[in-house]
Amino acid sequence: MINPERQQNWGWPAAIYVFLAGTGGGVFLLSLILNGMGWYEPVARIGALIGPLLVWMGTLFLLMDLGSVAKVYRLFSSASPFRTSWMARGAWILTAFVICGLAYSLPLFRIVSMAPLNPNINSRTRLGSPCRSAFRGRSRLSRLSLRCH
Amino acid sequence: MVDPTKCIGCKYCILACPYDSRRFLRVLGDYYAFNHPTPYEVRRQNGFEKGTVVNCDFCGGRLAKGRLPACVETCPAQARHFGDLEDPRSGLSRLIADHRGRSLREELGTKPSVYYIRD
Fold it and tell me: What is the ipTM of this complex?
C-alpha cells in the first residue's frame, strides 16, 4: 500500500498544537473527574480552567501552519463540514470544546459568580439575589459546584 | 483542482495524495530581478495565490482556448501526448491501447487519467 514516510508539510507549530491540545484535554478530563468526586477542589477548579485555555493556545499555533489565515472562516462556512473533511470536523470540535469547557469552568470561580447565568449563586454573592431562589439547590450541576465553595 | 480563492493552505490534501502531485506555494516566485517581478513573471503568476496548494490541471486555461497543455507543446522529444480518453477512437486512446499503457495505483480507485507507455 502506501509507504510510511516522514511528513514534511506540517512544521513545528503543529507539533506544539498536538502537545498543548493533549495536555489541555487531559487536564480538563482529570478536573472533571476530581470535580465529580469532590476531591482536591482548588486543583480541580484551576485544572478545569487551564485545560480549555491550553487547547485554545494550541489552536493559535495551528493557525500558524495555515497558508492563508485570513480565509480560516472557510473551515466553518462549508455546508456539510462533517461529511468528508477531518480538518473541518476538528475545527468544530475544538471550538465546541473550548466554549463548553470555559462555560463549565468559569462559573466555578467566585470572581465571575455574579454572572446571571451562573448556577452557582449562594448566600455569599450579594448581587445574585434575583437568581438565587431560582437556582439554589435545583440542578445537579449547581449542587456539584456549590461543593466547591 | 484547487480553487485558490477558497484554499486556506492547511496542506491536508498534500498528505492525502497517493501520487505526491501537490505542492504548497510558500512564496510566489523567485524573481529574476530579486524584488522586482518582470512583466513575464507577473503574467506567469496570474491566478496563483501565495499560501495555497497547487496541482496540475492540464493547463485548464489553455485547453479552454483550444491549445495543448504547455508541457505537451514544449516537449522536444514528443514524449507527452494529450487527448480525449473518453473517446475510444481518439488518437490518445489508440496510442494507449496499442502500447498497453498503464496508469499508476489504479487499485486505490482514483480513476487516474495519466497513462505511461513503455514499449
Answer: 0.72
